[in-house]
Amino acid sequence: MNEDRTLVIRRILDAPRDRVFAAWVDPAQAARWWGPRGVTILSNEMDVRVGGAWRRSMRSPEGTEHHSRGIYREITVPERLVFTFRWDQGGAAGHGPETVVTVSFAALGSDRTEITLRQEGFATVSGRDEHRAGWSSCLERFADHLAEHVN
């Protein structure tokens, strides 16, 4: 795999690993935090099982709609989630290659979690960098969601 076209982001969250994992895979919760700041989720379908599909539509603040989809390849509760990611425009395969996203959830004691997000398979470094900006903003929203929805 071409390392200069691989994205790796790490974040430490102030929530237990079980709760972080559950918030990631629960469609109702994901609809509240998924996507960069400012986007509105239009639809969020998640069949969280190996071989299950996910599909999401969102609208940017400028009014542009973005559609993405993928398949869950691996689910190890509450440690790891692997899924494909592809932009889907107009119902057909969209721009850019299908990439593979691996999200690892590491417990840091009983009340903190480190997420490591690795996305591989970008065609270009600029494609990787666009996703870095999007995922970074998305993970900020995720941290806010966890802080606001303390169980």
Structure description:
It is a single chain. This protein is of the alpha+beta class and 151 residues long. It has one domain (3-38, 75-148): START domain (Alpha-D-Glucose-1,6-Bisphosphate, Chain A, domain 4, 2-Layer Sandwich), CATH 3.30.530. Helices cover 26% and strands 42% of the residues. The chain has three helices and eight strands; from the N terminus they run βααβββββββα. It has helices at residues 17-25, 27-33, 125-148; strands at 7-13, 40-46, 53-59, 65-76, 80-89, 92-93, 99-108, 112-120. Strands 1, 2, 3, 4, 5, 6, 7 and 8 form an eight-stranded antiparallel sheet that branches. A hairpin with a 3-residue loop joins strand 7 and strand 8. Helix 2 crosses helix 3. The model has no long low-confidence stretch (mean pLDDT 92).
